[in-house]
Design a protein that fits this description.
By secondary structure, the chain is an alpha/beta fold. It has a single domain, classed as 3-Layer(aba) Sandwich (Rossmann fold). A 5-stranded parallel beta sheet has the order 3-2-1-4-5. Helix 5 packs across helix 6. The longest helix is centred in the first third of the chain and has 13 residues. It starts with a strand and ends with a strand.
Length: 131
């Protein structure tokens, strides 16, 4: 089972050619199993990127998110109290970005492989990653 980092989710939906072959393979396998997870903090990140004009989507951001929510193989994971506290107490080499901390904590809490190109997350080795 996999958790998509925010950039991977965006690329997978909007620019799949940006995905590595390993990421693409894992996502396709997980689609068949209906086991693709995305943290709700990624929804916040996407909306913030659009508001800040750092991301342009082909749809209104709320419609884009709703269309992703309608996909039967995606499950959005809310930020629970356990995930929020786990994000604070991650082991050594803390990540500075709060959203990254929530995403890593989500992957740890659910024992998911985090699909990410983010080298900082990969090097921190706080969670299983693939790219």
């Amino acid at each position: 089972m996999i958790l998509l980092d925010t950039h991977v989710w965006i690329w997978w939906v909007s620019n799949p050619e940006l995905l590595s072959s390993q990421a693409d393979t894992l996502i396709n396998k997980s689609m068949v199993e209906r086991k693709i997870y995305i943290s709700s903090i990624s929804v916040w990140e996407v909306a913030m990127l659009v508001v800040k004009r750092r991301l342009q989507l082909t749809l209104d951001v709320k419609d884009w998110i709703r269309s992703c929510e309608a996909l039967p193989f995606i499950q959005f994971i809310p930020v629970s109290n356990a995930i929020a506290s786990e994000a604070v107490f991650l082991p050594e080499k803390p990540l500075s970005d709060p959203a990254d901390r929530i995403i890593v904590a989500t992957a740890r809490a659910l024992d998911l492989i985090l699909i990410t190109k983010d080298k900082t997350i990969q090097r921190a080795k706080q969670v299983k990653t693939a790219w």
